């Protein structure tokens, strides 16, 4: 049983994708974005929150009971999640999945309009 939400299996996959606790944290991240109007400072806070979410999820598992290869991989993930990385795109802000998706959608819309 998951130690975060009390449901499901206590696995990394559950905690990263299906756990209610991680979904609640993701909803709070969305609220931060909506309140601040997606400013650069709020995006930095979101990335810090996401990194902390990964760290909390990894620490909550019994990763130390796995084989050595798994332990090394998770230790690397723990170390990497302590630092957040931001890639700035000029005056547009921070490059993120949402930003990339918006650019692709806009590009496709313009292409479709030009073809018609």
From TrEMBL:
Ranges annotated as spanning the membrane: 85-108
Keywords recorded for this protein, A-Z: Cell membrane, Membrane, Olfaction, Receptor, Sensory transduction, Transducer, Transmembrane, Transmembrane helix
Pfam families linked: 7tm_6 (PF02949)
MF (Gene Ontology): odorant binding; olfactory receptor activity
Gene Ontology CC entries for this record: plasma membrane
Source organism, top-level taxon: Eukaryota
Gene Ontology biological process: signal transduction
Name of the protein in question: Uncharacterized protein
Species, as recorded: Zophobas morio
